[in-house]
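FAQ: What does the model actually see?

It sees only this:
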Amino acid sequence: MSLRKIVFCISFSLSVFNFFSQDISSTIQFKWGVLTLDKKTNKTVGLNFSKPVQLSEGDDIRIYLEPVKNAFIYLYLLDSNNDLMLLFPENFTQFSKNYSNKPYYIPDAESWFTIDENSGTEEFYLIASKVRQPELESLTGKLQKESEKSTPNSNKINELKKSIIDELARLRKENSTNVAVAEKPVSTAGTTRSIGEVTTNATEVLTENFYAKTLRLEH
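And it is asked to produce this:
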């Protein structure tokens, strides 16, 4: 490793330390992780998205989210069939309740998503904001309402899906400059009836106003 790289690593580490050491009462703070079940050890492990993630048929995954402070979290999935769905919150009335400082698993703590035999890409859009996003919520509500009809209009559904993805991109672009973000790995312990004690390998995020991340799973 070159001296320049060493200096950069030290500088970056100090900046992250300073961010986590300062007063965080007004910052966004939350934890997230995408977990898979190691069937040999029957333990959960966190997926590492610093490199491409490749899964195989039969692999199980689950998403872990824990809002800590000032975080309105939205999580969408665009699956390999090009279907778009809101995974979190379950509904937007959840934001009106005291939903912070508790872990959420998607699907719930007794279930997993299982990768099927069809190859493709699953894209998860994760955003966290200090304020709610009314346009995003409105478009999502319209998509859900249209999808629940006995004879949904496929053209309208496709238009709404595109509008939601465009809105997610707009929010990300609008908040992409001058955003200080600190991320650090954390482990959180918990239990589920299905697999007993687990340790969740997750990421803790602190930022001032907004956070966005796209997570891609190939299979």
